[in-house]
Write a structure and sequence with these properties.
The strands form four sheets. The chain has a five-stranded parallel β-sheet, with helices on both faces. By secondary structure, the chain is α/β, with parallel strands linked by helices. Helix content is about 50%, strand content about 15%. About 40% of the residues are buried. Among the domains are: about 90 residues, 2-Layer Sandwich (Gyrase A, domain 2), CATH 3.30.1360; about 70 residues, no CATH class; about 120 residues, Isoleucyl-tRNA Synthetase, Domain 1. The structure holds one RNA strand of 75 nucleotides.
Length: about 550
RNA sequence: GCCCCCGUAGCUCAGCGGAUAGAGUACCGGCCUCCGAAGCCGGGUGCGUGGGUUCGAGUCCCGCCGGGGGCACCA
């Protein structure tokens, strides 16, 4: 990226200035290059001189001047100017800028790819809701964020695997089974109430009915007996099928569905991990249970691994799961996306990973804040335990996949999000996503027209693109790789939709100001050049939409 | 009580310690006789609050207020 080139050029300039004695020999901090807000400040800028002022015991402007004097301009950078109080502003050369149109065209679908993660396998786990009920809108948010993050990490070079961790054992599954069996028995006329802490939602009746229609009374046991194991498994599978369909409907597709239960078969991760923790002295027994001594690692309290009834906790499974990912499967990076309601789990999980001897930077947890569901400004409680749930499916069907994803992606994962159903439905027609897609469709129709008129623009000369709006468009396209770098570093994909709007705006502005296909014979050269520009913009727009998991329509 | 996240325009949200804080939407007014008006141009209000660090704070630190979420042998 040009940004990195500038950073390097600046460091070299400082080094030269220092060796010549023009600047004191102090340690150089990382040379941050930013994009100034105001065009008169150039394309890129650095405040390095301001940061160095203290250490160099000198005026920022003087330092900036000394650096600027030692900067060797390249064919890409036409000027490096000092601006008070001590900025150095860089301008891209027009020639280099217009040449980037050819670069984008040549790169095509790989435009904006980077190599930050080459050779590294990253695993992304998200949503992973318990298969005890349908997904709600909050899960949809993680779906959109997770899948977009996966796309971005792939684009910057990582080998990415997306995974859904299926909690198919434990208390909630037992409750699910009990509820399901109660519903099933009700279908055969038994007067059985669903459990106190069960799942009262009507979907459980649907599952029970599906099982009855497929298996008849095969699972009916004498009154008082517990739910048969097979029925529980069938019920879980049905829930998973429905969850997978809901996620697929919003463009979320996993490489793998990983069962918690698979960690507990003979000689699997769970056994290995427990033995390892025990051998390393992180395990103790008290009150009839087996504990992980997180306090030894600075935690507030110890955590149970195996309950006094002998069954492993979710925590124990999760340690085994992460051991499986980080050690057995050898992912260099493991990224989990959890809802804020799991934040309490983070410290002990980190402690456990440290106990396993895994470097902490290989494991990231994104704690996403929750979605507050509203209807006409009024808060709707979402809970699998209440009958009244608004499912993700309903929302996707009403709002549409693309608008839904865009909506989920726009806000920072750190911020709680209000999802107003009335508003979402209303806004689905005027969602900014259509603004972006419209830009793409507009370009498509320009290119179609060019083809119909038989304009061959292969020999178009981009150096003719001297109009301010043309150059603004090129500059905006070049921003995409920088955005991807930011997202890969921060793991916050919300910058993408904001960029998408900005890119579309820049295109629409260009479109208003610059006629692409002109009938004037003398305009043929600029027409060809602009067709190249427009084709490049189409690539950038399509890539941006694609990374967000949205369609880039040829017409709409 | 302790811990985490958030508080920016009427609404929904951006803003990597930098130069005059931005989008979308809503509201008002203008713009289609060669490419799609799902578009463009113009119009205005805002960093919850009090301190601190810094050459420079919406951004970092502390207090307070407000909202959300945690503090299980649930997940």
């Amino acid at each position: 990226m040009i940004k990195d080139d500038i950073s390097r050029i600046v460091s070299e300039a400082v080094r030269r200035a220092q060796s010549e004695g023009a600047l004191p020999a102090v340690a150089l901090p990382e040379v941050a290059i930013e994009r100034p807000q105001r065009p008169e400040h150039g394309d890129y800028a650095t405040s390095l001189a301001l940061r160095l002022a203290r250490a160099m015991r000198s005026q920022p402007v003087d330092i900036a001047g000394a650096i600027a004097n030692h900067i060797e301009l390249t064919d890409a950078i036409s000027s490096a100017e000092v601006a008070p109080p001590g900025f150095i502003n860089f301008r891209l050369s027009q020639d280099w800028l217009t040449r980037q149109v050819e670069t984008v065209l040549a790169e095509g679908e790989t435009f904006s790819d980077l190599n930050l993660g080459v050779g590294q396998k990253a695993q992304l786990e998200y949503v992973s809701a318990n298969p005890v009920g349908p997904l709600h809108v909050g899960n949809g948010r993680w779906g959109a964020i997770g899948s977009t993050l996966a796309n971005v990490l792939k684009a910057v070079g990582y080998g990415v695997e997306q995974e859904y961790y299926v909690n198919d054992m434990g208390t909630q599954i037992d409750t699910f089974a009990t509820t399901l069996y109660a519903r099933y028995q009700q279908l055969f006329g038994r007067d059985i109430a669903i459990p106190e802490e069960g799942y009262p939602g009507a979907y459980m009746i649907d599952v029970a009915e599906a099982i009855r229609s497929e298996h008849g009374d095969a699972f009916l046991r004498p009154p008082g007996e517990l739910a048969p194991r097979e029925m529980r498994d069938i019920g879980v599978e049905k829930m998973l099928t429905s969850i997978a369909a809901d996620l697929a409907s919003m463009g979320v597709v996993y490489d793998r569905w990983f069962r918690e239960s698979s960690l507990h078969v003979a000689s699997s991760a769970y056994q290995v991990v427990l033995q390892k923790l025990r051998a390393d002295g992180f395990v103790t027994e008290k009150e009839g249970a087996v504990w992980f001594t997180s306090t030894a690692l600075g935690e507030d309290k110890d955590n149970v691994l195996i309950r006094s009834n002998g069954s492993p906790t979710y925590f124990a499974s999760d340690i085994a799961y992460h051991y499986n990912k980080l050690v057995e499967r050898g992912f260099q990076r493991v990224i989990d996306i959890w809802g804020a309601d799991h934040q309490g789990h983070v410290p002990r999980m980190r402690a456990a990973i440290a106990a396993l001897g895994v470097e902490r930077e290989r494991f990231d947890v994104l704690i996403g804040q929750l979605v507050t569901l509203k209807r006409g400004g009024e808060v709707v409680r979402i809970s699998k335990r209440s009958g009244d749930i608004i499912t993700l499916r309903e929302v996707v069907e009403e709002v549409g996949t693309d608008a839904c994803r865009f909506f989920f992606l726009t806000s920072s994962p750190n911020a709680t999000m209000d999802f107003d159903l009335e508003l979402a439905k209303k806004q689905s027609a005027e969602n900014p996503v259509y603004y972006v897609q419209y830009g793409h469709a507009r370009i498509a129709s320009i290119l179609t027209l060019a083809q119909e008129r038989g304009i061959d623009w292969a020999d178009g000369d981009p150096s003719l693109l001297v109009h301010e709006a043309e150059q603004a468009l090129i500059r905006k396209m070049l921003e995409l790789p920088e955005i991807l770098e930011t997202i890969a570093r921060s793991l916050e994909p919300h910058h993408l939709p904001h960029y998408a709007i900005a890119l579309a705006t820049t295109f629409h502005d260009f479109y208003e100001k610059c006629r692409v296909i002109s009938s004037e014979p003398g305009d043929l050269p600029i027409t060809k050049a602009r067709l190249k520009l427009v084709a490049a913009a189409k690539i950038a727009l399509a890539r941006t939409l694609g990374l967000m998991g949205m369609a880039a329509p040829e017409r709409m």
